[in-house]
Amino acid sequence: MEQSTRLAADSLAFKDVTVHYNDAKDRASQDDEMQDTNRTKEIQFKASHTVLIFFFLWIFLLHAIGIYFFTKGFLLTRLVLDHKSNCGSPPIELGQPSPASFADGCWHPKTFDKAVIVIIDALRYDFTVPFSGEPHHFHNALTVLDETSRQTPEKAFLLPFIADPPTTTLQRLKGLTTGTLPTFIDAGSNFAGTAIEEDNLVAQLRDAGKTLVHLGDDTWHSLFPGYFDANLTHAYDSFNVWDLHTVDNGVTEHLLPLLKPENSSKWDIIFGHYLGVDHAGHRYGPDHSATNAKLREMDSVLRKVIASLDEKTLLVVMGDHGMDVKGDHGGESDDEIEAALWMYSNKGVFGRGHNGFMEPPATAKERPVGQIDLVPTLSLLLGMPIPFNNLGAPIAETFVGPGEPDWQNLATVNALAAAQISNYQHEYSQARGLNEDVFSLPQAFWKDGLQSWREALKSGRHSDRFRPAFESFAKHQQETLKICRSLWARFDIPSMLEGIMILICAVAILGTYARSFRPIALELIPVYLVHMTMFGTISAALCSAITLVVFRGGLVNAALLGLAAGGISGFTYASANLPQSFTLPFPRSLWGWLAVVLTLSQSIGFASNSYTIWEDEILLCFLSTFTLIAFASSMRQEFFIERILGIFQAGIFLVLTRLASLSRLCREEQMPYCRSTYYASSTSSTSAPWQLLIPIVSATLLPTVIKTYYQPTRSYQGSATIWIGFAARLGLLASAIYWVLDTADDNDWLTVDKGVLQIIKIVIARLILGVSLVVGTTMFVWSNPCISIQVTPEVNGSADGDVAPKPKSVKVFGYANVHGTRYFLLVINWLLAVVLLQKPMGAGAIGVLAVQILALLEIVNTNNLSQSAIGPVVLGLLGSFHFFKTGHQATLSSIQWESAFVALKTIRYPWSPLLVVLNTFGAQILTTIAVPLIALWKQPPKKPRLLGDVAKALATLLLYYAVINLATTMWAGWLRRHLMLYRIFSPRFMTGAAVLLIVDLIGILVGIGSLRWNFASIAEVFGWN
Amino acid sequence: MTETTTEAKPRKLIPISQSISVLPTDTARIYNHIHPILILSLYYLCFPSLVSDPVSALKKSVAPLAHLQIIYCVVCLPPSKGSSTQSTPSTTPKKKKVQFAKPAAKPPTTLATRIIPAILSLLLSLSLSAPLLTVILILFGAPLTTHFWHNLLCATHISLLGVLPLFYVHGVDGRMWREISGACLPFDEVWGGVIGAVVGAWLGAVPIPLDWDREWQKWPVTIVTGAYLGWFVFRFAGEYLLRGKRIEFD
């Protein structure tokens, strides 16, 4: 068969192909043969496609196992039990009467009716005790606590009050109200939000019908929404650390009037939370006159409070944590955990008889009590049941009584607390499937205590006889606490190391595959796959068997570890036997080096909290750097069209990057050098009306702009016209309408019933998601390539030679970018879904991202970079960049939980989490789906090894995210004692891990998966390669 | 169906630019080495006031820097012969062996023929490249709505350091500037200085985010510092180590 193929090689923009058939008759005879080879090639393609998917699933598996092992050792989670303690049923019958009513006290006769609980944020213990040496600013300023405890020991006592890390206010308040140790993640039934679900003192007080008043730090309201009396409560924003006075003045202004006798019937418990000392610490540090002034102010306020206190009211003053030398907190250094606790009452019930020390300890190292001890103490003093999850013990000073020590009372309260702990520990072991042996030591103390108690009861109730029982019960509490602490708060280093090792190996495998395989080696993937699977299975079976025989337990972990180790050694074994299939993995061009330098410098930066905090700005700088080099590279093009195309696209990319960077949601640590623009103001999470213009503009412009990338190759044909011109336009417009309605709903612009509005919104949202993901995917499977074929019939030359003979010719419009234009339709599908789930500002950012992806593809194509690592790496940077530009940060608090309700009325699994994932990682998901385009854009339909090129591009993108994840993982593990662990490194590690797993799955299932139909549809026209 | 794929590899521009050498006089050779030290001393003297009040320090040092650079150009560098005298070389790859000016054939330059291009270069680098560099700084993440003078003065300094001599030796020839914006000049003192200033300014951004609370971390002290140091290092590297080499992308 003779063909002449004409490629307009000199003009890239019009690379349509025209094929002339000179001899049509030959075709029939060769058709059969061609069909045969075609079928063979189709089967070959499908086989290698399937093999590729399995290979990438192996990579995903290694990532998942690595992250699992690291997380298991690093983020120990605590299961939250839903049980509640009950007033009517004390945890133990002690053989003495208990009142069992709220009026007299639940498990124990109550001491006080009312309480004023004042939290002075970051009140370190040494702020409160006298200091005789060279005083710092924070010394001897707040003296009232020490003074009263010395002068009237029966009315007041002052003790060091040790916080359990993390020493952040939110976690501390959880500890101070539930009596338990908050871990980084409290795994509970609650999907979103921060409200405390488990049993706690505030909930018990409310259920008992007490009127609760809260003044100050608004963190309380996210923990206890709706618990406080709406009229008397006054909450203030807690994050403005630059403002030392608003919160404090507000608290004082409302607190003192409430203490007047005429107002005393209005409330039962007041929680006052002062932030001035903490803010002074953050802003100036403790050794500064501002801190001194703040402490003096607290001193005078407390004196006023004492003066207006009646007999029935207990006054508690405490710090929720301390502060380090710079005035910051969050970690677990001594200065941060040593807070102060002071209790005062005019009733004169406090004593020191159990240890005989009358004066407050000089340093926080002597006679400290735990912060979790506050909950049982307050519960019993106020006649409440001890919350179910409590692990603390009653503070002896409050129950021992003035004068001679009342050992019986002490033993009683400790028995109640210990019984409660015992119940809890039993339930927890059952819920978690723990072996009861774990708690055998405290159980022994518990039994001892009961024994001594019974003996003391029999022997005539002399108070001294109860001392052994008290001591055993106290021991029981201490031992249980120790065990729980080790269960929840200790890092499991070997497990972390296992995880890191697996992740390192996964990076090595991915790196080898992406950058070091010779093209021919891609065809050897089946060999690798077989070895990995074989070794993996055998090793998993071996490990499980050994574990089963030798250790008896932990079967799943052993099997997973074996699987990962086997897979890795399988890959290594296969590589060792195929040494000819590698080249050195070092970059061979400036572009390659740029990809490596950008990835590595970002990874190294995660070791520093500053670079982690400012990641968004760093990504902006990196992206601009790439574009500037791309600009220079385009300048080197010989031909005008290519040069202009490259320069123009680089310019678009550069300007759009900076434009997108204007959308910011600042994290707390970026203050005051950052201004949030994502929402209407820095304190709201709703959009400003003007921001509604962004999705509307995006809906108008984006389809037109995308069209301009199709037109130069004449690819705006067939399905592209419906998709871009109609479906995308309509979908984007519908999301814009959705957000207009949403804002109208928030601001009450419409007089429509809220319920009706919500239904309309949900219908729109579901339509968009349905059309984009379900209908869109189906269409993508069936759609034809974006080409149109023009057939010119054969012209037989007339005998006289007037008409020249012309063979039949077929002209294909859109030939030059067959693969790319069709595949991009899939990106548009996902774009519609992602845009819907973003706030108006985010819709703009995602629109910008879409254009940037197209501009990048043109840059990559004109500069001949489709094989280079830089394309996928820049896509990865773009994904990370737009993660920040869609209103996210690497913190838990920036997760936009409300996006779960875009298409749903209530939480529904698995849809709600999926919507939140699509909102949070929308940018990374889109760039991952787009990564095959790096290899496909403007490539001829039958380019050899195109599938391998795509796989290589995807592997490079995954490599970028895997390196970032590995870096954040290693740094989080290495810096596990760092002050900023819980605020910066842990959340960044979790973000990195989540991104990697999601990107893996999307890349395999959507990216590689959909290639099957893309190639098939193109092969239908052009034949298999 | 089979095809003959004649995939068009994009053809690259073949650079015709040559390394420039300092004028063959003793004064030029000596001052060529004194000049960088003078510039760095100027910077060193300005540093304390740069940290305390960047805008006024940068503003005050523009004039001395411009003078020093002009003197350097006049004393050491061969001026461009202007775009009119240089024939635009053909772009087809066949004729890639292109003529370039032989130093020996140059007519002797008088002081006036050197001062005027130097002043023109100054004007061009102030009016053209300084605003352009300001835009680039902003695109790289410099504050958009505030710090206008900081950005402009920072760009002016980089421009005077790097671009002024570039205008002086290469003029406004279109082909030359295509090569310059394609970064394909061969290394010499001038081109080394340009690359050094750019790379240095880029690296200068590195310490800004750190939470060391130092006064010198403020915008744009580190950028200017990086540019000066980078310029200093790379202009020597360009003169000796890298002389004649070109940056290759692929």
Q: If you average the pLDDT of chain A, what whole number results?
A: 87
Largest interface: A-B, 49 and 36 residues
The amount of helix of chain B comes to 55-70%
Oligomer: heterodimer
Task: For this entry, give a set of tags.
heterodimer, A: 1025 residues, alpha/beta, Alkaline Phosphatase, subunit A, 2 domains, four-stranded antiparallel β-sheet, 31 helices, 14 strands, disordered N terminus, B: 250 residues, mainly alpha
Overview of the structural elements:
Chain B: It comes from Lepraria neglecta. Chain B: It is found in: Endoplasmic reticulum membrane. The complex is a heterodimer of chains A (1025) and B (250). Chain A is of the alpha/beta class and 1025 residues long. Helix content of chain A is 56%, strand content 7%. Chain A starts with a strand and ends with a helix. In chain A, 51% of the residues are buried. Residues 1-15 and 188-192 of chain A have low confidence and may be disordered. The two termini of chain B are 34 Å apart. In chain B, helix 2 packs antiparallel against helix 3 (111-139), helix 2 (54-76) runs parallel beside helix 4 (148-170) and helix 6 (189-204) packs antiparallel against helix 7. With 250 residues, chain B is mostly helical.
How would you concisely characterize the structure shown here?
Chain A has 1025 residues and is of the alpha/beta class. Helix content of chain A is 56%, strand content 7%. Chain A has two domains: 530 residues, no CATH class; 217 residues, Alkaline Phosphatase, subunit A, CATH 3.40.720.10.
